[in-house]
Amino acid sequence: MESPSGSVLVLNQNYEPLNICNVRRAMVLLWLGKAEVVKTDSVTFHSVTQSFEVPSVVRLSYFVKRPVPQLKLSRKSILARDDHTCQYCGFRGSNLTLDHVIPKQRGGPTDWHNLVCCCLPCNNKKGNRTPQEAGMKLRRQPKKPRYVPYISFSRFVAAARHEAWREFLQPYLVGLDLSL
């Protein structure tokens, strides 16, 4: 099974997910002795004199210490958290908006606990009301996701769908409701 779009999961020396890079960058890390192969794809790369199995997961030979980044609230992150699914009717698609569960005009904050993914018909139906007033029910309560260090949340959600990477990302999936 080939890595998604030629991507390679890069692990820190302690097997913590650190980054997702392209195959070329991973091959350079391997060639320079800065990383070792943990898992390979079934794809083989041929040079003039040698052939190499394309890595799917590599681990750095040294520990990289980085400050833990803060998870930023963004449209992309909310869509990834809610799996591009309307939290009122369950519609899955790309034409989605963000909805404040408690409307902004009523003092609802713009934060992880008040923003949800919503389709246009549901957003129009709800309008400037709470879900209870509009006769609607949330499929699940919005909450701030647990952040995986060093990988953006939307990239992490996409990476978690790749079966070969799942075992390395599994500890960070705890408490995250994704239909994987």
Could you give a short account of the major beta sheet?
Answer: 4 strands, mixed
H/E series = EEHEEHEEHHH
Contiguous runs where pLDDT drops below 50 for at least 5 residues: none
Rg is 20 Å
Strand order, main sheet: write it out. 2-1-4-3
Report strand %.
15-25%
Percentage of helical residues?
A: 10-25%
Query: Using DSSP, what is the number of strands?
Result: 6
Sum up the overall morphology in one term. elongated
Query: How many separate helices?
Result: 5
Number of structurally distinct domains: 2
Q: How would you state the average pLDDT, rounded?
A: 88
Distance between the termini: 17 Å
Structural class category: alpha+beta
What would a concise description of this structure say?
23% of the residues lie in helices and 24% in strands. It is of the alpha+beta class.
What does this structure look like?
The protein has a four-stranded mixed beta sheet, sandwiched between helices. It has a two-stranded antiparallel sheet with strand order 5-6. Strand 3 (35-46) and strand 4 (51-60) form a beta hairpin. Helix 2 packs parallel to helix 4 (153-160). The protein has helices at residues 23-31, 75-81, 120-126, 153-160, 163-173, and strands at 7-11, 17-22, 35-46, 51-60, 96-100, 115-119. The chain has two domains: 4-67 and 150-173, no CATH class; 75-126, Orthogonal Bundle (DNA Binding (I), subunit A), CATH 1.10.30.50. The longest helix has 11 residues, at 163-173. It has 180 residues and is α+β, with helices and mostly antiparallel strands.
